[in-house]
Amino acid sequence: MEKSESTRPIEIAETSKERKGKAPLLAAAPPVAAEHARRGYKRGISIFDLILRISAMASALAATISMGTTEQTLPFFTQFFQFQASYDDLPTFTFFVVAMAIVSGYLILSIPFSIVCIVRPLAVGPRLLLIILDTVIVPLTTTAAGSSAAIVYLAHNGNSGANWLAICQQFDDFCQRVSGAVVAAFITVVLLIFLVVLSAIAIRKH
Predict the structure, then answer these.
(1) Which DSSP string do the residues of 129-165 spell out, in sequence order?
(2) Rounded distance, CA 53 to CA 43, Å?
(3) What membrane topology was assigned to this protein in its record (predicted)?
């Protein structure tokens, strides 16, 4: 009886210092479920970015083509004059076509980088490049749309103080096409702003 009691194992309580030493080892390994959830969240943002980028490209191309092919000739003319309106008669509309063509080209070239963000949702480099370039393109698009909108307003309403007559009553087809191009440009501006916000959210989550 005494022998069995003498061979009984002695339990040693674990000190608080030893427990503190083991805690970081358990916390060092990140949970796999959280990593997968984070990756899925990033991929979802990247897919939405690609959809918005393609939509912005379509609206920018529509604005460029609509404005760049705008021309109307009235069916009546005199011996010395032929009444014709074309986008290149106004420097503002010429700037609009050039600016929106640049925006369209950029959006086409940015699509592969957006696809890279889908394949590698945790990569910071492509996302940072996109947010910088998107931020540069937004003011260019806004300038083209805003300046052309002022000309379209004058074409529809004129300005009695400056003796500028409204021409849309005669050149109705011309005014409809340039108005549609300006509306498409403003849609592009809104989509580009959403793209910048999405990229900022994705980078912040890193």
Answers:
(1) HHHHHHHHHHHHHHHHHHHHHHHHHHHHH-BTTTTBP
(2) 15
(3) Multi-pass membrane protein
